[in-house]
Amino acid sequence: MARTILRSALAAALVVGCWLTAPISPVAQDLALPLKPNSVRFAVIGDNGTGEKPEYDVAKQMATYHEKFPFTFVIMNGDNLYGGERPQDFVVKFEAPYKALLDAKVEFFATLGNHDDPNQRFYKPFNMGGQRYYTFKKGNARFFSLDSNYMDPVQIAWLEKELKASGSDWKIPYFHHPLYSSGMHGSQVDLRKVVEPLFVKYGVDAVFNGHEHFYQRTKPQQGITYFVSGAGGQLRRGDLKKADFTAAGYDQDQSFMLIEIADKEMTFQSISRTGQTVDKGLIVQRAGADPIVVGGSTPASPAPIAKPPTPGAATPAPAPQAPK
After folding, report:
1. How many CA atoms lie within 13 A of 128 on its CB side?
2. Distance between CA atoms of 66 and 182, rounded to whole angstroms?
3. At what angle do helices 189-201 and 153-165 cross, to 10 degrees?
4. For residues 174 and 207, what is the distance between their CA atoms, to the nearest angstrom?
5. Contact 258, 271 (CB under 8 A)
């Protein structure tokens, strides 16, 4: 048994080594973020944990951009691991692709997707503190990682309590299932009815989701901009449909996001697997009024995706055990 595990680990390491050194089509890697002093800087990925080549390509771009834009943490929108969740799977699908960032002490804060075992909350590099949902603060922003698989009354009561007590300039929820989406799964209307009134009541300006395997940004909905960033490893090409609420979208390649918060401004940039900017813009908070949102970018034609080989400190909230 031990020899079998060792052989699997060695095989995975060989595959990982090939993927990390594989060339990516060159694209101008322009940074659209201002790099203001003392700003909050982070990245966003979702539906990433495939362990396949496109995930490694995205991770490589993230590491490259980190040299220009030294973000300190990453929020993960769920579906952190697809398939098996053995120790070697955590290596191939998380630790190896993001090694450069982990070595640079970048923190990852995960949320649970529908493909995730709830026991991921005990995996220390995901910084979930053993909880299905939790909150943490960075600078003038407080983040709320929610479990949209099981939005029970206890979690809703906790969310309202934490939003009300936050006191932060920026309140940023992130969770797996999108309240607004024009993809295959569509908008999660029932979930929207439960949580959106709280977002509006307590002054949320931006929300991040995954689940749909593309990038999408909405027009402000009751003053809130919703981002879907669910193409960190998976991709559903051609799945994005135009909807009344759509401001921008990209479904031709894998992607991730970079975000900078400085005082009352949030600057965002969505970047493809090959390094091209597919959307960018700015959200400006205004006292007593809806925020101003400006943005947009016209992406170039994406590079083809090669078929990969198959590889062998948060503040916790009280929560019930997730159902099996």
Report:
1. 23
2. 31
3. 20
4. 6
5. yes
| Rounded Cα gap, residues 177 and 189, in angstroms | 10
Rounded Cα gap, residues 115 and 247, in angstroms: 28
Amino acid at 273: R
Provide the token pair at 169.
């300039």
- Distance in angstroms (rounded) separating the CA atoms of residues 60 and 306: 16
Residue that wins the pLDDT comparison between 307 and 55: 55
Q: What's the pLDDT tens digit per position in 63-118?
A: 999 999 999 999 999 999 999 999 999 999 999 999 999 999 999 999 999 999 99
100: number of Cβ within 10 Å: 16
In the numeric block, which tokens belong to residue 237?
């090409």
Tokens of 260: 């900078």
For residue 282, what are the β-bridge partners?
267, 294
Q: Is 303 within 8 Å of 274 (Cβ atoms)?
A: yes
> Residue 18: what residue type?
C
HSE value, Cβ hemisphere, 13 Å, CA-based, for 310: 3
- Single-letter residue type at 282: L
Give the global pTM. 0.85
**Beta-bridge partner residues of 108:** 74
Contact yes or no for 273/282 (Cβ under 8 A): no
Q: In whole angstroms, what is the distance from residue 194 CA to residue 201 CA?
A: 12
